[in-house]
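ok so i was messing around last nite and threw this chain in just to see what happens. nothing serious, just curious
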Amino acid sequence: MIQKILVFEFITGGGFSQKELPESLAKEGMLMLKALVDELTLLTDTQVTIALDWRIKNFELPKNAKAVVVSSDQCIYDLLPKLIADADLVWPVAPEMEGALQKVTDLAEKKSKKLLNSSSQAVAICSDKLATIQCLHKQKISSVEGVQLDQFSEEFKAPWVIKPKDGAGCLNSYFVSDCKELIRIGNQLETKCDYLIQPYIKGISLSLSCLFREGKAWMLCCNRQLISIVDGKFELDSCIVNIADENDIDYQGLINRVVSAIPGLFGYVGIDFMLPELGEAMILEINPRLTTSYVGINQAIGFNVAKAVVELFQVDPIIVKTHNQQIIVSI
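result:
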């Protein structure tokens, strides 16, 4: 029996069909889409369907995959119900901004489809960076403190980071060096209540690529994020996937605590955190979806993540690393 899987990567799949494609997010989305389709189409008795923005050309698909083109006069949310209804499994790869991931997850759940990502409850928490921090703090899990920008009264000293509560990647994330700069950026933002302010932590920016299932978690690898500050804004330049890190055992303990704090996490989950110059790891955010680091995992450790996620409904993953190397994913 053929298993029909809908892969919906929001940026490249029509989420911006009626407006300008954000270049950096589109590049990241295309990298993730290609990696995911490549892994899924290796599975036997599988038919993969993707949505594809009308501006994306020359995207080659294997024989057991097809694309539904979203034209410039179509709204993706008008097309998604039918695409979801025709699928057995739904894999949303959408950013948190403007509730995109939440909307797609809700649509799939309402149609009682098997989701290859986290539940709507878990997505709701993780889509709000402030809510995530508050949830982790309740469980005494180390994370970078934060305050809603319109409620900030210098609870922590400069320099600061300002970013959207529902942001994706480094989009619209600012480095703020002093109070003068804080006022200037604050005046630029129409809705301060949609932004979070946090202390800038000196250290190494890292992420964990993990699998979650029914209260259990497995770490696939640790990754380093190379981030620069250009004209006061953060930019993700590249990810080094599968770095060697002496703290791996501690990180497994960390994700075991995360799974208890947010029990609806399922499938691939990325955890961004800072490793300060002094002190323990501090979580920045939790991404209940594929992240850019996913693109390099198969090549880095020889493990088919997509296959493991599809099989999570039946069995715990057995993570066998057939090789062990670092892979650089450039943005």
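not much to say yet. The domain at 3-116 is CATH 3.40.50.11770 (Rossmann fold).
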